[in-house]
Amino acid sequence: RPESDAGATDHTATCTRRSIRRAAPPAPAPPRRSAPAPMTTATATAAPLTGMDKYEEVRDIGSGNFGVARLMRHRENDGLVAVKLIERGHRIDENVYREIVNHRSLRHPNIIQFIEVILTPTHLAIVMEYAAGGELFDRIVDRGRFSEDEARYFFQQLICGVSYCHHM
């Protein structure tokens, strides 16, 4: 780390997109505005989510060991958010609690922004900023490889975000 940066806690000052010397890859296309996906048996069991009235479901965007992630639209401002839904019947363990506590304190342009936690009668909902570009892993699998400039662009963002977390 450069000596002038030693002890710095504001990593946004040294890790910005302006510090990329070559042209960045084109931004992903904005998400299509379409009608919400029809409810399936899997999604109907968790809907409607009482307490989530200010959001409307657009579609499922993923699933994991603890639950599902859904793309939702804020009814008042039309903004898109990602919501991680964890069934309350499952043991909400220390890892989930730690994720919430740690994520809510992070403020960095290369880290998905935590918005709120909503406790419904059936679920714990973690509401976060929606990243329309999708997952980096999927992009790598689809493309096979990146050019040096593209790899530098993504790697710098990743390293800046991780560095910020390590200095919290």
Automatic annotation (TrEMBL):
<keyword id="KW-0597">Phosphoprotein</keyword>
<dbReference type="InterPro" id="IPR017441">
    <property type="entry name" value="Protein_kinase_ATP_BS"/>
</dbReference>
<dbReference type="InterPro" id="IPR011009">
    <property type="entry name" value="Kinase-like_dom_sf"/>
</dbReference>
<dbReference type="GO" id="GO:0035556">
    <property type="term" value="P:intracellular signal transduction"/>
</dbReference>
<keyword id="KW-0418">Kinase</keyword>
<keyword id="KW-0547">Nucleotide-binding</keyword>
<dbReference type="GO" id="GO:0004674">
    <property type="term" value="F:protein serine/threonine kinase activity"/>
</dbReference>
<dbReference type="GO" id="GO:0009738">
    <property type="term" value="P:abscisic acid-activated signaling pathway"/>
</dbReference>
<protein>
    <recommendedName>
        <fullName>non-specific serine/threonine protein kinase</fullName>
        <ecNumber>2.7.11.1</ecNumber>
    </recommendedName>
</protein>
<dbReference type="Pfam" id="PF00069">
    <property type="entry name" value="Pkinase"/>
</dbReference>
<keyword id="KW-0808">Transferase</keyword>
<feature type="region of interest" description="Disordered">
    <location>
        <begin position="1"/>
        <end position="41"/>
    </location>
</feature>
<keyword id="KW-0067">ATP-binding</keyword>
<dbReference type="GO" id="GO:0005524">
    <property type="term" value="F:ATP binding"/>
</dbReference>
<dbReference type="InterPro" id="IPR000719">
    <property type="entry name" value="Prot_kinase_dom"/>
</dbReference>
<feature type="binding site">
    <location>
        <position position="84"/>
    </location>
    <ligand>
        <name>ATP</name>
    </ligand>
</feature>
<keyword id="KW-0723">Serine/threonine-protein kinase</keyword>
<dbReference type="GO" id="GO:0005737">
    <property type="term" value="C:cytoplasm"/>
</dbReference>
<keyword id="KW-0938">Abscisic acid signaling pathway</keyword>
<feature type="domain" description="Protein kinase">
    <location>
        <begin position="55"/>
        <end position="168"/>
    </location>
</feature>
